[in-house]
Design goal:
Helix content: 40-55%
Strand content: 5-15%
Low-confidence stretches: none
Radius of gyration: 29 Å
Largest sheet: 6 strands, mixed
Main location: membrane
Organism: Marvinbryantia formatexigens DSM 14469
Order of helices and strands: HHHHHEHEEEHEHEEEHEEHHEHEHHH
Number of domains: 3
Strand order of the largest sheet: 3-4-2-1-5-6
Structural class: alpha/beta
Enzyme class: transferase
GO cellular component, one term: membrane
Number of helices: 15
Pfam families: Bac_transf (PF02397), CoA_binding_3 (PF13727)
Number of strands: 12
Length: about 475
Amino acid sequence: MIKDNQKYFNRLHVLIDALIVVGSYLLAWFVQIKILTEPGTGVYPDSVYMLVLLPLVPGMLLLYSAFNLYTPKRVQGRRLEYGNVIKANLMGILIFLAMTMAIKKIDFSRGVVFTFFALNVTADIIARMLIRGVLRDMRRRGMNLKHVLLVGYGQAAREYIDRILENPQWGYKVLGILDDNTERSTVYRGIHIIGRTEELMELLSVNTLDEIAITLGLSEYYKLEHIVAQCEKSGVHTKFIPDYGNIIPTKPYTEDLMGLPVINIRYVPLSNTFNAIVKRTVDIVGSLICLVLFSPVMLVTAVLIKLTSPGPLIFKQERVGLHNQPFIMYKFRSMEVQKAGAERRGWTTRHDPRVTGIGKLIRKTSIDELPQLVNVLKGEMSLIGPRPERPQFVEKFREEIPRYMIKHQVRPGMTGWAQVNGYRGDTSIRKRIEYDLYYIENWTLGLDIKILFLTVFKGFINKNAY
């Protein structure tokens, strides 16, 4: 039933997209040619513009299909889908412009092309938002559900059930679990153990299942080949949810070693030479621009520190950076001068008597971090990256927090994904590491730009800075 519904929705979706393409193009043509263009200025006849619809509609639908815009939307993120809409339309524009040049129709109205792009993207995103809303409402009311059987009861099964129950808009319903090591009376969040794995074929023959999810525990992987063979005989869609999600990231980096699949435990995009060069170039250019822009602020800060508190202007502290190498990080001094080693006692706390009056202000506004632009120029830090810690805390956290040391596979940053999400100062170090690892494994130049943007609008003022 789900497959029939999916076919219906796909056909309806294709029809809606086709109508949007036609409507957007006709509106763009009418506005640009009939309203904004002076009569008799040498534009092509209307028939030429209408003929464009013949290749345009199927061409755009093929592009939408190529960019996975007709795949099921149960767990597909909205931002990913809307991004693919934009990418497909950009590709369409490039192909269209190339074709006009190839057939020597270079006078074809660019206004029509770009107006169509804006209208088509906007209308298609709105339509997809409405479709998502309709499907979400249907699934919350128990319609268009996908019925799933789990094979294996381990950590993977529990995490899978947790996510399904927390996201009813996905439209999944778990009918039960087959497991060889758990009593039939066992229930997890309303989901029952209904039998043993050897009963799989019997259940497949009498139940209308849409999907089988293999969620075996690590100790039961010797059964995997046999269970997969049984599932494939049934013709029911089968997926495997590994029980090692705490070891391998959600987007593992895989290699094909002459037919042998190899999964890398950790993929760091910045280990790619080209990516590293791009990021370092941005760091150098960005830090130079910031030094020029913030030089008046830094000058005023330096004067105020000198006038209000005796001691050095710059506070230097050892931190651990790329490849676990120590370096000296610079900050404007925001505390009274302390005895050697006194700052090693821990993080600054609320109402810490060591913080000066000016220090409270510059710590709250992150002005004290500006000298780290010099660290960026020297190559010890990056504009964006995990915040560096002192050696004693690195030694402490490496033993207490799994995967903590992975953060040292990239340069530390002045700001980062954890910081713009609120994990600064005296906050959960575990949550901070989760965000740092996400950044390390999912780095793109676009993500760096997003973090810089968020830093400007909500990252400078730090409510956890004391």
